[in-house]
Design brief:
Chains A, B: Pfam families: HxlR. Chains A, B: This is Winged helix-turn-helix transcriptional regulator. The structure is a homodimer of 168-residue chains. Chain A is built from eight helices and six strands. Chain A is an alpha+beta fold and 168 residues long. Strand 5 of chain A pairs antiparallel with strand 5 of chain B. Chain A binds a DNA duplex (30 and 30 nucleotides) through helix 4 and helix 5.
Chain lengths: 168, 168
DNA sequence: AAATATAGGTTCCTTTTTAGAACTTGTCAA
DNA sequence: TTGACAAGTTCTAAAAAGGAACCTATATTT
């Protein structure tokens, strides 16, 4: 499978990875959520090569995750900002950070604390069901192939019966 | 910044990316959550080269995300299964899938539907605050640098005052 | 007994990506 | 006139990934 084919796969995860599926892209997005907006700021903070930074920013803009906003004319300068679509990646970033806080940090714990403005507490994210509001884990979910996708999925990514049952 | 340095960065996101920060690793984990366990099954479903698959499985085992479990002696064969730590990546996978369902799919919608076993409904994940239980978005969170990390963060990844305020 | 199949790799060589440094462009300030 | 700044582009070298063939231990088929 090639990079270019990823966003055509019959799988939403693969298609999302076509946009954010490399480490630089996710680190760029982390910085976006920290308020970083300018080419040279990304470059200095990340230690990324200009070549790759240009490429990733272009890709993020082309998928509508970031948009360019002029902050100066003559010479024209533009900064990169999170769109609404980009802001919706926040749960993903938060999930990755939270996992790292728990499983990858040393005795000092989380480097950055997330404060929930409305309750004022340091929080970590909990995933809930959109329908009943209950908190969920992997074991509370079963999967079903959507009818409209059945043929395509069976051809390219067949999924056996037991599905998530086999995790338990 | 090198791959090898990532898991030493003063940032939980960077450290998590040291484990899952490339597209193949996340696709392997997707298949794990679908119940795939064996080397050749991963290979066939993903179209990944054996070389890379070997490398990624080794890395996931070394970080404790997967563990090897013998399913046959003579010849000894082992399968790869999600550990408790690996299962805790479910919110991340679910977040990526949900974003793709919403922003990357065609008119047919989501290829795979997630059913919440206890309420029986097709669901998508909502991120809630662990402390007060309210649903949150990017704009409901502000960030604070943990005291113990202040010096290290200021040296390597200085964070300006406005933080998330600037997203709004 | 010999040939073939299977699972899970490893080796070798080629192509693609990334790193690292230097160069470019338009404008302003000293 | 020279230098600085932001946001790139271009060049070469190094690292990673792709692709195909080979390896090992055992079981099955001919």
């Amino acid at each position: 499978m090639r990079w270019e084919d990823l966003d055509q796969q019959p799988c939403s995860l693969a298609r999302t990875l076509a946009v954010v599926g490399d480490r630089w892209t996710l680190l760029i997005l982390r910085d976006c959520f920290l308020g970083v907006r300018r080419f040279d700021a990304f470059e200095q903070r990340l230690g990324i090569t200009r070549h790759v930074l240009t490429d990733r920013l272009k890709k993020l803009v082309s998928y509508g995750v970031l948009y360019k906003s002029p902050y100066q004319e003559r010479p024209r300068r533009e900064e990169y900002r999170l769109s609404e679509i980009g802001l919706e990646l926040h749960p993903v970033i938060l999930g990755l950070v939270s996992w790292g806080d728990k499983h990858m940090s040393d005795e000092r714990g989380a480097p950055i604390v997330h404060i929930h403005k409305s309750c004022g507490q340091p929080m970590h994210p909990i995933t809930h069901c959109s329908e009943c509001g209950e908190a969920i884990t992997a074991k509370d979910i079963k999967l079903k192939v959507a009818k409209k996708w059945q043929d395509e999925l069976n051809e390219f990514l067949p999924i056996k019966k037991p599905l998530l049952k086999s995790l338990l």
